[in-house]
Amino acid sequence: MSEERLLILKMLEAGKITAGEAAALLDAMREGDEKGDDDEDREGGWARLEKHGEDFAHKVEQAADRFSRTLEAKLEGGLAEKLASLPRILAKIPFMAGTESHEFTQEFSGTFSSSHPEVPLRLSSANGPIMVEGWDQEHFKLVVIQKVRAKDRETARTKVVEIPLKESGQELDELVVQLAHQIDVTLAYQLYLPRQFKYNLLLVANNGRVSVTNISGTIIKAMTTNGAMLVRQVKAKEIDVTTSNGSCKLDYVESETIRQRTGNGSLKVSGSAKLIECGSTNGSVTVAPLTFAYPESEIKLETTNGSLRCVLPQVAGLGVSADASTAVGKVQVDIPHFEFSINEKRAGIHRISGTASGDGATSIRINAKTNSGSIVIAREESSHGTK
User: Residue 129, exposed/middle/buried by CB under 10 A (0-12, 13-18, 19+)?
Assistant: First the structure.
């Protein structure tokens, strides 16, 4: 048995591909064998194997993206409210409707003490979205929207969660609203922050979208179980975002360290960092550094099923070191003056490693790995650019 067939069977045994997908890959190998063993036929068989792997990964990407978009639409359409009516352990079981939803809105405002170099912020929502946005005002404003399921509004009012803040006029060293899961209640936060402060931010949501825009800080950390993640125009020493089910996008961000993870959904990063780490189980990963603020930087990309794409900007004298591999798919490196130290196709694996020398002032190291899907590492002006 050939190494390629053995690899396909091992992937099937490990649950990385289905029986149907394994059969399609084996058929592609068999077609190559039937046409002969010369180099041209081997290349044709390999091309078919690559295409099957890329097609499979593309289908997984599409399914993961559809799932994350559908989930987000359902959460915005009231699914979170329905889940709130169940004990937390039962939140994954479909909800049977029966009561009405009543909305209550509260606003809290105040200022932060100017004696601290950074302001700690902690917001958590067991069911519902969180939005944080910088503005030009000198005070903060927190809008809390509670949706309560009850037979009538008076009964709903008795279930409204008490927020441990004064409505106005308070000066705070920190802002902390961390509430336990409440049956029949969803909490949505809208927090507006004065941009002159730096923040140490921790956001934890469940069944809701999380967005952070137009602020700066030391640590920006955000997590959600079911929902999309958006971080835009943010500058911080560390940015760390995680979602279990949903897409995650970091747009025009600047940091020393960026970490981005999801179980099902796509990941996208545009910005600058000394280290960018992105990992997904099912979904594509796209990274587009906008500039290089550090002499040496590193990008690490990994997904089980999906494509990986790294598009580098035009930077004179940039040195590039790349190591990329896919178990089923194709690796393409389109970098001027790139010299290959490894370019091998063996046992179903395509791996490329090499360097493009620069002037020594700025360099980047790229590591990319996927089980099923293509990998592209290119300059933005190439045919594999940011289409």
Answer: buried
> What tokens were used for 239?
């940015």
The span from the CA of 267 to the CA of 278, in Å, is: 7
128-151 pLDDT, tens per residue?
999 999 999 999 999 999 999 999
How far apart CA 100 and CA 149 sit, in angstroms, is 5
Q: What is the pLDDT of residues 218-233, one digit of tens each?
A: 999 999 988 899 999 9
Domain span at 351: 1-81+233-387
Residues 119 and 204 in one domain: yes
Segment 328-350, tens digit of pLDDT: 888 999 999 999 999 998 767 89
Last residue of a domain, one of 197, 227, 257: 227
pLDDT range class, residue 51, cuts 50, 70, 90 = low
- 199-220: average pLDDT: 95
Residues 348 and 278 in one domain: yes
Answer yes or no: are the C-beta atoms of 354 and 310 closer than 8 Å.
Answer: no
- Whether residues 104 and 243 share a domain: the answer is no
Question: Which residue type does 239 have?
Answer: I
Q: How many CB atoms lie within 10 A of CB 291?
A: 10
What does DSSP assign to residue 169?
Answer: S
Q: What does pTM read for this prediction?
A: 0.78
Q: How many residues does the chain have?
A: 387
Distance CA(181)–CA(87), nearest Å, equals 9
Q: Which of 227, 256, 289 delimits the end of a domain?
A: 227
